[in-house]
Fold this sequence. Notes:
The complex is a heterodimer.
Chain A: E1 2-4, H1 10-22, E2 27-34, E3 49-55, E4 65-72, E5 85-90, E6 106-109, E7 130-133, E8 146-152, E9 174-180, E10 193-197, H2 200-217, H3 221-226, E11 229-234
Parallel strand pairs in A: 1-2, 2-3, 3-4, 4-5, 5-6, 6-7, 7-8, 8-9
Antiparallel strand pairs in A: 9-11, 10-11
Chain B: H1 8-24, E1 34-38, H2 48-52, E2 58-60, E3 64-66, H3 76-80, E4 86-90, H4 103-115, E5 120-121, E6 136-138, E7 159-161, E8 170-173, E9 176-179, E10 187-189, E11 193-195, H5 205-218, E12 222-223, E13 240-244, H6 253-258, E14 261-265, E15 276-278, H7 285-291, E16 299-301, H8 311-324, E17 331-336, H9 341-350, E18 355-359, E19 368-369, H10 370-375, H11 380-393, E20 401-405, H12 411-420, E21 424-427, H13 429-434, H14 457-460, H15 465-489, H16 495-498, E22 505-507, H17 512-518, E23 521-522
Parallel strand pairs in B: 11-21, 12-13, 13-14, 14-17, 17-18, 18-20, 20-21, 22-23
Antiparallel strand pairs in B: 1-4, 2-3, 5-19, 6-22, 7-10, 8-9, 15-16
Helix pairs in contact in B: 5-15, 9-11, 12-15
Amino acid sequence: MRIDASDLHYRDLNRRIREAAAAGTKSFDLLNVNGQRYIGDGIAGAEVEIDIHGVPGNDLGAFMDGPTIRVHGNAQDAVANTMNAGRIIVDGHAGDVLGYGMRGGELLVRGKVGYRVGIHMKAYRGRRPVIVAGGTAGDFLGEYMAGGLLIVLGLETTNGEPLIGDWCATGMHGGAIYLRGEVDPRQVASNFADLRAADAEDLQDIRESVEAFCEAFSLDAGRILGDGFMRVGPISHRPYGAKYAA
Amino acid sequence: MSSTPTDTKGKDRARAAARARAQRAPVYRRSADFRWTHDPEQCARCKRCVQQCGFKALSWEDGPVVDPEKCVGCHRCEMFCPQQAIAVVPQVQHYRPHPLWTQAHRQNLYLQAETGGVLLAGMGNDLPYPVLWDNLLLDACQVTNPSIDPLREPMELRTYLGRRPDAVEVTLGGDGPELATEMGPTLELETPIIFAAMSYGSISLNAQKAIAMAAEECGTLWNTGEGGLHEDLKPYAHRAFVQCASGRFGVHADYLNAGAAIEIKIGQGAKPGIGGHLPGEKVSAEVSETRMIPVGSDALSPAPQHDIYSIEDLRQLIYALKEASNYEKPVSVKIAAVHNVAAIASGIVRAGADMVYLDGFRGGTGAAPTIIRDHLGIPIEIAIAVVDQQLREEGIRNQASIIAAGGIRSSADAAKAIALGADAIAIGTGALLALGCTLCQKCYTGRCSWGITTQDPALTRRLDPYVGSRRVGNLLRGWSAELEEILGAMGVNAIESLRGSRERLRGVGLDKTTLDILGVKPAGVGA
Lengths: 246, 527
């Protein structure tokens, strides 16, 4: 189903997608998308595929439960907010607060990601949410992280550009963050998280996700996985356990 | 009456415990808040007291022996003693009295000197701040405006929550008048009393089920809190607010669509500005399923929602939730009553919320730092008045309903809250009291002897949800009947006529500034 989103309010655009998806439409081509929010919000079904041409607005794929979204362009803030399952692929850059409270599925961003990415991601049973950023990430990466996998590849960065911002892993109590390249230890919250070089077992842990990323953007996974990764993991699953008088 | 152990073994043990206490710190002795006394003459030696103590304060050494440090004064043993041989009484002040350095201050300080930790507390603020409900009185009819007898006249408590349109357009067609204005979703309640948010995790499933069943039976609403929706409670979800808070525990599209309404929790009256930590020990297999997190992992709800730093961000989440629920569910935003509450509430309404839930500083909690619980926020009485006033002045009062909570103790408090401007009130502590809670304030230990704020199966099975729902339902029926009595005495036959009718309130013992803020005249001034 092709929908020309020119001059369509998000409410009308999303209603059409929701109704068509409920009626069994599996494939959507959204043309001329220009900042419409909430595309794919709460939509279910692993076979549903949404291709977005243009720039979707905030909360793309919020509460989504299964579908695949491909953005042929940049995405804005809050992509994959509290997402349960599914896949979102962004060909360009994406903004702040990606994957807040994300519980499952994959978010693959070819370019850079903004601030507060992967806050309070969590794993549950078979679900392990994954965010892969091809470029760099801003401050507060993986704050309060409770589960899942965050990978920052730092591809095509200019010299001296930091891979991540400050305050990475503040409040972290689960999951793992992998950073390809050098990281200033002062950027990682040492009172919550442990920064070390990734070993062979760790690389095995991220292989599948990096390969999926490379397949999505036609890149060479072997070359990327060959470079040195740093791993950030929680010191404790009970960061506040000793805080209280009893 | 004596709590002394009856044999030498018990005496030896007590002496050893005393030595250990004396050695623990140079000056600190963890003193007991309660004196547990027992009459061996009366004792039937049934050991029921030992079995009933959830806090493991009692053991059996040829007779009940108490560990005074562990007794929280919940009175479970006393109530279950068939011989009435037990009395739990407050421990008398054993330090030299001091008006500034009260016993509570001294004990807290000693505990912190020992542990270096943050003090924890359960339930609501227990400091003697002024209770403004007790300075407000309701009007009644005499001679010139006849009162109404609710026994012979129908009384209307039905309450609708949600957005009202700015104006209603009606078209006149061949089939008569038709409503042309698109109406948003609203909630229909049989009484203006709903249940406050208490998550599965903070309270037991049996407690939550008792409340959910009572809500369904009484035609009102319960609230999941930020703990997800347990499978067993799905049949009652259509009468529930499903909550979405900073931890996003158990929040997914089906959950959002299962409830009657969705609530974004920004803050809680007992702990404004801070988040929540459900410790890993309480995340049992079942709690894990409902919250959708691994067993034994800490459930941290960060202090702010880190995707909401502004009213614009709040609007984004409100509409994300409305989109996910196809605009079929009204959205409430819950905040703690704080100094700037009126402006914040105005922003919330302009952000698109259909309800604003105000939680006053006396509201309860399963666990909060004592210092936060006891010293942050403002009274709900003030918050209702200023929010109602602000929304009226801005001409947006119709766009959202006001739900008020935080220390509402009786139907009189409820009536006064509604007269000040609330559309409905919510009760949390009141509902737990109906389930047996004695306000021992030790919810955070997870050892509740009544099976309310615990996940220990040996304790939770003490609470029969069917018996509990009858008791909670009785409370709602009693309060509703009293509201009808109040309305009748005031000469009105619908709760709608009392709503925001501050002219029917008078203040006693309040200063002029407070009266002005409340928008209430002092007693003695006529219409």
